């Protein structure tokens, strides 16, 4: 195989946007990478792929898949061909995400205080009160700087015509940023000249931005706030990310057993005695955060932490109760939130979404289920999802029965033909479906979005499911400076 065979006979899939090709021509922003990779002998590319795999292995860049109750730790698959986004495309994405997060922050403040949007019929009140992640315990609680969403991972996909759509708003404990950072470091190792030659914007500033935002959330009575990262522990699927971020920010990584609440204040146990904690970047879900208030069997959280939070003695990132804005049924109303709170038209579109709690929409979906993706409103990671075009009749019938038991808990969307990007598979460039999760950081001084994000890849041929838990991988994501 010669060097130029890499992209030879690269198949273009009909009615699908290809990130590298515009019909038969290489898009201008991919041309340099196309030329560079085409000039590298195939055996050398394979060696680079093997080097990347070895670096992931040696650095412990892993995630955990749970199957039959057992946690199986796996190396996160990495594709060596980067995904490239132009400066103008990124400008659209950045403006759209900032607009969306401004509206969602205002909605969260509203829903836990005056509830104007519910009274005005912008969002149905019964939809909110039936949401399992709407926490009455947060009603009337003021959060620092009125910021609820400090960290967001907004999932974007691209339809056949190149239009970006928001797939999900991840506003609770979004994961994946460590893979974004590590993907860039691996790319620097295997292609040291490509990044500066292509004027790729950096992503390494993410930990510093996050750290500064966390420090700014302290109640201001101490000159050097104590910030910690609260992890569920080593068996969590994203534990690698927790350790990585704590190390890069220079803060303590703690578990629930390392903290204690006294007199409505949170303290960390140290060899020198108790030390007060001012800010907690928590990666523990609401349900397990405080066994005195939520799940009484939880051993992951801290008894009394919600009391300290309500009194303003500790800041928690992301805010408790964000899940109400993360509900896939509430997602439907985000464009209306933008118009209501900001008096602006949405920059980024929603995917058309059917709420199965509505009888007419449910009837339409059940009749056309082979053309639909049906999801549970509060599941993540690709679990609890039916891909109608790929499911068997038996699977569809079983899923219909589940829908009819609790229709409020399901939404449906038409199957979107996710965009393709070339991936290095078996020594050839082959198209695979991708999405994009940019990471936004909201602080007292505004919203910052690191230019890049996590591009997830459906490595199985023909698959539309990019989640790592379902066999997906990732790519380095380049945003060009010009």
UniProtKB/TrEMBL annotation:
Residues 82-458 form the Circularly permuted ATP-grasp type domain. SUPFAM superfamilies: Glutathione synthetase ATP-binding domain-like. Signal peptide: none annotated. Pfam families: CP_ATPgrasp_2 (PF14403). InterPro entries: ATP-dep_Glu-Cys_Ligase-2 (IPR051680), CP_ATPgrasp_2 (IPR025841), UCP005522 (IPR016450). It comes from the Bacteria. This is Uncharacterized conserved protein, circularly permuted ATPgrasp superfamily.
């Amino acid at each position: 195989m010669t060097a130029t065979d890499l992209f030879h006979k690269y198949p273009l899939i009909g009615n699908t946007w290809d990130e590298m090709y515009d019909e038969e021509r290489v898009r201008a922003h991919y041309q340099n990478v196309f030329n560079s990779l085409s000039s590298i002998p195939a055996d050398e590319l394979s060696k680079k792929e093997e080097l990347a795999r070895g670096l992931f292995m040696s650095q412990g860049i892993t995630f955990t898949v749970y199957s039959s109750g057992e946690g199986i730790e796996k190396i996160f698959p990495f594709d060596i061909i980067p995904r490239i986004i132009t400066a103008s495309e990124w400008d659209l994405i950045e403006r759209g995400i900032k607009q969306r997060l401004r509206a969602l922050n205002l909605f969260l403040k509203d829903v836990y205080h005056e509830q104007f949007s519910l009274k005005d019929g912008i969002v149905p009140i019964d939809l909110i009160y039936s949401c399992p992640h709407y926490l009455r315990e947060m009603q009337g609680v003021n959060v620092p700087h009125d910021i609820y969403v400090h960290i967001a991972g907004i999932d974007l996909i691209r339809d056949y015509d190149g239009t970006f759509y928001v797939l999900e708003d991840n506003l609770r404990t979004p994961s994946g940023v460590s893979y974004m950072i590590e993907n860039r470091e691996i790319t620097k190792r295997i292609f040291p000249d490509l990044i500066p030659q292509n004027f790729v914007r950096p992503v390494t500033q993410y930990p510093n931005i996050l750290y500064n935002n966390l420090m700014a959330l302290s109640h201001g009575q101490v000159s050097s706030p104590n910030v910690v990262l609260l992890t569920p522990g080593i068996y969590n699927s994203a534990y690698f990310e927790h350790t990585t971020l704590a190390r890069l920010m220079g803060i303590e990584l703690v578990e629930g057993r390392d903290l204690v609440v006294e007199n409505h204040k949170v303290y960390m146990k140290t060899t020198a005695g108790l030390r007060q904690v001012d800010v907690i970047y928590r990666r523990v879900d609401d349900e397990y955060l405080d066994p005195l208030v939520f799940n009484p069997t939880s051993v992951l959280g801290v008894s009394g932490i919600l009391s300290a939070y309500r009194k303003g003695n500790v800041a928690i990132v992301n805010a408790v109760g964000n899940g109400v804005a993360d509900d896939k049924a509430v997602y439907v109303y985000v464009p209306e939130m933008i118009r209501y709170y900001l008096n602006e038209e949405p920059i980024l579109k929603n995917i058309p979404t059917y709420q199965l709690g509505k009888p007419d929409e449910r009837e339409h979906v059940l009749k056309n289920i082979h053309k639909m993706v049906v999801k549970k409103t509060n599941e993540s990671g690709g679990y609890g999802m039916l891909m109608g075009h790929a499911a068997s009749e038996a699977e569809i019938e079983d899923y219909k029965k589940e829908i009819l038991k609790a229709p409020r808990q399901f939404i449906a969307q038409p199957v979107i033909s996710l965009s393709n990007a070339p991936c290095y598979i078996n020594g050839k460039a082959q198209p695979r479906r991708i999405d994009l999760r940019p990471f936004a950081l909201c602080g007292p001084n505004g919203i910052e979005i690191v230019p890049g994000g996590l591009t997830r890849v459906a490595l199985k041929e023909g698959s539309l499911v990019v989640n790592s838990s379902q066999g997906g991988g990732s790519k380095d994501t380049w945003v060009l400076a010009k």
